[in-house]
Structure formats: structure tokens, C-alpha cells
Amino acid sequence: MTTETIIETPTFADLGLVEPLVRRLSELGYETPTPIQARAIPTLIEGRDVVGLAQTGTGKTAAFALPILQKIDPKNSKTQAIVLAPTRELALQVCEAITAYATNIPGIRVLPVYGGQGYGFQLSGLQKGAHIVVGTPGRVIDHLERGSLDLTALEYLVLDEADEMLNMGFAEDVERILANTPEYKQVALFSATMPRQIRSLAKKYLHDPVDIATPKATTSTATVRQRWIQVSHHHKLDALTRLLEVESGDGMLVFVRTKSATEELADKLRSRGYSAAALNGDLVQAQRERTVAQLKSGAIDLIVATDVAARGLDVDRITHVVNYDIPHDTEAYVHRIGRTGRAGRTGEAILFVTPRERRMLSAIEKVSGRPVEEMSVPSAEEVNERRAGRFATAITSSMGSPQFHAFRTLVEEYVSENDVSMTDVAAALAVMSQSDKEFFLRPDPPAAPPRERREKPAGFERSDRLPSEGSAVYRVAVGKRHKIGPSAIVGALANEGSLKRSDFGKITIGTEHTLVELPADLPDAVFEALANTRISGKLIDLQPDDGPPIKRTREDRKPYDKSAPGKKPYAKKPYEKKPYEKKPHEKKPYEKKPYEKKAPGHTDSASGTRKPRHK
Ligand code: AMP
Question: Is residue 550 part of a domain?
């Protein structure tokens, strides 16, 4: 690890950002600017137009949002900035990010406007005055035509995922919006690709823009096998623990984006029984060195790190690099995977890709120099097979233990006293060693269909009760009678259930209850987190909605099996633990009784099977 490289990287303050924003980024756990941020932020602060070649995952949202937040005047309630995005999902995501960055700048209002949502909420938001509007082109045009959106005071305009907007047939709409804005405004255009159409759009509407592309990199890591897995954000932890069960390896380096994420993930892994530690730029040098030494010596097997903290890390034991969060650029990817396959050994690099990050994957494939193979999250079956294998190995190795003979004698005595088979005793001992944990994962449910990614342009409305692909309808026990609106529902579920605004689909408020469209594969952790959530003082009792109003309780659901991704809530059989009953022949604790041989066990006359006398 070299200190010089850490100093060479600019800080957010170096880029010219004001203190409240710099503080906010540190609160969010961002260590250093990503390459696109390092170049775009000072350029935009300076007032120049920008054309940025960047995919999702590069940190482009902060690259344009931070300068806008810095320059906007909160006292002027007119719309000063507009961000155009191709899909509802992206618009919501950008809106959410800007809101998160704006926390320390009081009074800034950000409003999403997109097709598919009713006009009421958007109209009242626009009437109140939104400093920043983030919208899909079709709906922005609608508002311009209705006169509900006034762009005469516009100072900043961002075209996000410009190539996607054109691909989706929004070219005309985008040009119309551009033509409806004041001549002197600052424009930033971001696009994953630069087809001719985008170039000419930039030429026509941008003033002397600065071209910013994230640097290209190539790998020289011929000894590293590269694989990728598509996994949604909610299921990353389960995917990682399954990989830990089925991959054979030694040390593992897991990359995440933020300092806080290193701590959170290391904690979660420790609580699942793995020896893991966090490595981030907040740790003092001595602590970092200690953690690396622990990995080297094998005292720990897993390090969860940020890019900065893992710079230059050279530990031969690292057989696996897991890109838990996709890197911001291809250079970071090349650097990350170069932490394995060292000293002439082979290494494994596994990349987690959420559906939205597929474009970043293509960029990575280009630099990787070799195919990045797709793999799937290990199935419950594979995990169980490994568990069975490890069980067998553990038996064999326990036979070499110094205690083995003492236990052997005890087992022999037990068998002759109780007339049971050795297999039964062995199985009973295995149950004891499991201390009530389930040994096998439950089988995986059939995979849910992928979530629809794109909002269809113009005129697309879903039918009332049919959720979009990959979504499901859930029910909460508050409705009109409790004087609530959609924002109360979204606010409560998003804040307390750690859901993103983009997770929400259609919301239908009834008298007593509300139906909310959410991802179909909502993990039970979300249900747990929302178990005590109230809106207007009423417990919301979030439940999957099967259509007819059947009242179900939380107890009807199976407990969350943390290692089974893609699981939908389903009904559970009532828990039937029988109360403990003392049997007439109950044996007193062994050591308190003098050793005496017992008569063989009885035969169960009904079934004809032999049963041990004592359960
Ligand atoms: P984007 O490319 O804008 O979609 O951003 C991708 C992800 O990176 C988001 O989850 C951001 O919160 C995160 N992010 C953006 N900038 C940074 C940074 N400088 N350090 C760490 N994470 C970041």
C-alpha cells in the first residue's frame, strides 16, 4: 500500500466543492471522486458545457448533480435545473441521489416527473416550485404544453443516458425541450456510447463543450479467470455467502463502494460465522497494516475493502476477488482483479452486476482481454452438496481427534443400553452438533421473471391490478380512512424498509388499505424491518396481496431463510413444537447414575419398527 497514490488522488474539496457538499459526501462514505467526477465537477463548476462518455456505475450522477446543487439559488423558487432521463426508473434514481446529496443544503426541492404516474402529485409539486426537475422527455413535454412547467429561468440542463433516450424514440422530444429553454444555459450530456446522432445533438445545442471520457485500461491478468453474476442489490449478500460455500479458495478480497459499506458487510459476514475484516481509508495506517497481516497469516480469510484502501495490496493468499459493487471504471476493475493471480498463481475474479449495470459489464468485457463468463448464483442444491461433502470430511478428520476413543466407548455403551443402530446414534450426534440450525438450505423457488427495465414512452399505462414483470402487489393496512397519501406510504416503506423510490410501482389507496407494487422478490429482511412500522399511528402490516382480501398475519410467513435468494413470502405451517414431557422411563443424567447395562429397547408394536426407549 503506498501513501503517495492516496495523496495524488484529488479530494472532493480539491475539486472546488463547497463544505456542506464535501461533508455530505463524507457522511455517505464516499472516499474519493471517481474519474468522471474528478474531471466533470471542476469543469461544470467553472461553467463549461460537458459531454461525458460514461456508463451507469461510474458515478456520473454525482458528477453533474453536485455542481448543480452548488450553483442553484434556493431562495429563487423557479425551476433552475432540469435533468432528462430515458426511464421512470432512472428518473427516480437520479432524483433520490440528488436529494441525498442535498441534505446539508436546506430548502432545495427536487421533483421527479415521469409518465405512468398521475398528474396530481406532479402538478402540486410544480406549483410549490421545484428547483430541480428530473423527468422523462414525454412527460416533461406534457407539462410544458399544459403550462405547468416553466423553464424560462432554466440555468442548467442535463441529458442523462442520451443514447438510451434516442434509442427509445425520444429524439424529437429532447430537441423540443432543448428548443424551449433559454439560449444561455449550461448543458451536460452523458452517454454510454457516442453515435453520430449524439455528436450532432451536442454540436447543435452545447457551447464549446469539454469532452470527458473515463480512461481506458487493459488487463495483463492472464492468470485470472473472470466471471460475472447478475444479482439484484437485495440479494448480493446471499449470493456472496453462497459463493463462499461453494468456491474452493483461500483468501478473498471483496470490493464495495463506500467506507461504511466495508464495515457493514464485514459485520454481516462475521455474524454469519466468517472471519472477515473491513479495510478502508478511515482506518489508521497501523490498523490497516494489522488487517493485511491477518489476511497474510490466515487469521482472517476475508477482507472487505474500498478501491483506495486496497491499492497496491499484495497478498499471495488471495485466490478470489469479488466485485460486490461494480467498479466505477474499467481501470478500477483492472486494478481490483490484479489483487489475485499473483506470484504465478491462478486467481478468480467474480463480478456482481445488477440489471441496470449491464452496460458497465460490456465496457469491462472490452478491457478484460478475455471472455468474462456468466455464472449464476450457486443453487441451494449445489450449496447442500458442498455441505454434505464437508460433513463427510469433518467426520473423517474427527476420527483422528484425541477425544475420539473416549466418545467411542460412550457410544458403544449407549448402543448396547438402548438397542439402536449406530447410524441412528451418529445422526443424533450430528443433530446435537447443529444446535438447532437447519443443515440444508431449502430448495430454491422457481426464478422470478426479470423486472421490466424500460418505461415505455408516451401513452403507456398499466392495467389496474396487473403488476409489471418482476413486481408484485403488496398490501398495507392503512388507507383513506387514516388520511394518508402515497407520499406517506412511500416515505415510511422507503425509510424504514430501506427500499428505494425506484422500487415502487403503482400505489392504489383504498378505504381501509393500500395496494403497493414492489419487487416480487422482496426479501424477508424488508418485512422484518417494517414489522413495527406505523403510519398515522396504525401498524402497516405489510403483506403480499393475493387479490381477495384475506387477512393474514406475519406469523403465516416462513421465517426468512437468509441464504436463499429470490424467495417470495409463502405460507408457513403452524409451528408444532410439542411441550417437553417427562417420560416414565426418563433416564437421569448419565454421570449421576452408576453404570448399569439396560435391557434392549422395545419394539413399537404399531409400526413394527425399533425405537429407542428415550427420546
Ligand atoms: P452512478 O454511476 O451515478 O449511477 O453511481 C453509481 C453508484 O456509485 C451509486 O451507488 C453512487 O452512490 C456511488 N458513488 C458515486 N460516486 C461515488 C464515490 N465517489 N465514491 C463511492 N461511491 C460513489
Answer: no
